[in-house]
Amino acid sequence: NAGVMQNPRHLVRRRGQEARLRCSPMKGHSHVYWYRQLPEEGLKFMVYLQKENIIDESGMPKERFSAEFPKEGPSILRIQQVVRGDSAAYFCASSPSDRVSGNTIYFGEGSWLTVV
Amino acid sequence: GENVEQHPSTLSVQEGDSAVIKCTYSDSASNYFPWYKQELGKRPQLIIDIRSNVGEKKDQRIAVTLNKTAKHFSLHITETQPEDSAVYFCAPLSNFNKFYFGSGTKLNVKP
């Protein structure tokens, strides 16, 4: 059972370009979370999705950031017109259901974005 | 959203000593309390978790204790080893199915 798969692992973008980060959840998992981690800091919640539905995007910046989880294919976190402050590690996590048994989340290896 | 605080932010212990990290949270509806370990440049990995109907859980050298009344839970590591050096995060599950991570505790185990 493959784990949560993220790609690319490392991405370098110039200011103003677009970054697309992809996440395939674990087999059987239907819920995806995206977190951002700045150097030496904790993980900040960005968005919580299930297939074809954004459940909670309260942690997403209002501009330039968007996320989707289509019926087919991976979840995508898209950052338009990147700026230096977007440089961070972006972690995706998945869980098998929306709850209440308290299913835990499992993280991918992360995507490290560097904006130059 | 949930207010999660971890203490201490850094912890240095001698190999073989015990380490305790405390996490306080604000959402009284939280019912699932995991701890994650993150090594430099790697993903967070679940090391132990506890549900609200249990007060304590142990797994070899690692234990977690929960005080729901006071809204805090703690990670206990006994007989620490250099490979325990990492950043540890608590992440209580909120009532809205989101995991809010604490700011992390950097543990350094000195050989």
Architecture overview:
The complex is a heterodimer of chains A (116) and B (111). The mean pLDDT of chain A is 91. Chain A has strands at residues 5-7, 10-13, 19-24, 31-37, 43-50, 53-56, 65-68, 75-79, 88-95, 106-107, 111-115. Chain A has no helices and 11 strands. Chain A starts with a strand and ends with a strand. Chain A is globular, with a radius of gyration of 14 Å. Helices cover 0% and strands 48% of the residues of chain A. By secondary structure, chain B is mainly β. Helices cover 0% and strands 50% of the residues of chain B. Chain B is built from no helices and 10 strands. The mean pLDDT of chain B is 93. Chain A binds chain B through residues 33, 35, 41-45, 48, 55-56, 58, 91, 93, 98-100, 102, 104-110, and chain B through 1, 31-32, 34, 42-46, 49, 51, 89, 91, 93, 96-104.
Ranges of chain B where pLDDT stays below 50 over 5 or more residues in a row are none
Q: Poorly predicted ranges of chain A (pLDDT <50, ≥5 residues)?
A: none
Identify the most extensive interface between protein chains.
Answer: A-B, 24 and 23 residues
Q: What's the order of the H and E elements of chain A?
A: EEEEEEEEEEE
N-to-C CA distance of chain B: 40 Å
Approximate helicity band of chain A = under 10%
Rounded mean pLDDT score of chain B: 93
Computed Rg of chain B: 13 Å
Strand order of the largest sheet of chain B: 1-3-8-7-6
Taken as a percent bin, the fraction of beta residues of chain B is over 45%
From the alpha carbons, calculate the radius of gyration of chain A and give it in angstroms.
Answer: 14 Å
The tally of beta strands of chain B, per DSSP, is 10
Largest sheet of chain A: 7 strands, mixed
Number of strands of chain A: 11
End-to-end span of chain A in angstroms?
A: 37 Å
Major sheet details of chain B: 5 strands, antiparallel
Overall geometric form of chain A? globular
- Quickly count the helices of chain B: 0
